[in-house]
Amino acid sequence: MANLEKYNNAFIETFEITEDKLAGLKYQDIEAWDSVGHMGLIAALEEAFDIMMDTDDIIDFSSYEKGKEILSKSEYGVEF
Amino acid sequence: MGLLDSKVCLITGAGRGIGRETARRFAEEGAILYVTDYLEGSLDPLIGELKEKYHTDVTPLYFDVTEESAAKAAIMSVKKGHGRLDVLVNNAGIMRDNVIGMIGQKLLHDVFDINVFAVINMIQLANKLMSRQRSGSIINISSIVGLEGAAGQLVYSASKGAVAALTKAAAKELAPNGIRVNAVAPGLINTGLLQAIGENKIQENLKNVKMGRLGEPIDVANVLVFLASDLSGYVTGEIIGIDGEATV
Lengths: 80, 248
Description:
Chain A is mainly α. In chain A, 52% of the residues lie in helices and 0% in strands. Chain A has a single domain, classed as Orthogonal Bundle (Non-ribosomal Peptide Synthetase Peptidyl Carrier Protein, Chain A). In chain A, helix 1 (3-15) runs antiparallel to helix 2. Chain A is globular, with a radius of gyration of 11 Å. Chain A starts with a helix and ends in a 9-residue tail after the last helix. By secondary structure, chain B is α/β, with parallel strands linked by helices. In chain B, strands 3-2-1-4-5-6-7 form a 7-stranded parallel sheet, sandwiched between helices. In chain B, helix 1 (17-28) crosses helix 9, helix 3 (68-82) packs parallel to helix 4 (105-133) and helix 4 runs parallel beside helix 6. The mean pLDDT of chain B is 96. Chain A binds chain B through residues 43, 46-47, 52, 54-55, and chain B through 68-69, 72, 75-76, 79, 121, 124-125, 128, 131-132.
């Protein structure tokens, strides 16, 4: 599975939304992406990419796009 | 069959005192062990002993618990090695203090960095693995002075009081994930840390212990075995005193 597909699936499965809602999606835009949902998303991403994210990055993960930027950092090495 | 058969356990500060004795008892009960210390090579004698005596699957991890990236790497190595973490014992800590009026900022930061902030960080990291498996036991080391306070030990008392409070908070937050969080509050335990205060002072303090003897590291380790094992499967958010009925 391509990394983008894995990334999208983490959002889709955690928040139970469709792919067309992903672009531009921000933290707390939808009810499911609250603080508890956020930790669920992080757990899904860590599992999908076999990584462990830094706390600062978890806090900075404020949108669908920002998340891609964070995971692209060298320490995580996820290429989109 | 041991109480901790096949449980993957991580004990911080296992190089001496309570941490070392806990590693021995966990090994005796069949645990798979990750033991940590900050001083490279300091765990070699313990590792050799556990392998020879109990045939323990034991891995040393050398890192400073106050460094978030190093702690993360340690948890990652547990994940890569065994894919799970059943028990975390947050044992690493320091006892430093001064009288009111002579408490410097460095002392404050050093004590809280290790005794409190590192513990919170380790809980956050362990939670990543434990939440996925929907189980786990986290055990923190508070102190009788964290619950009662002690003259001349304001900073240490405050740090261990914080450990008691964060244990209760974490227990509430993590219970829905199947993770138990408890702490022990040792009294006068016969470790190098205690010996450093001198024999006269020890004898003076001993008068306040109704059982009339110092606690031994194994007295603490035995309670930690209970909290790590499934025997305590419905116990969480507790601070268990191990003090021989002492008063401070």
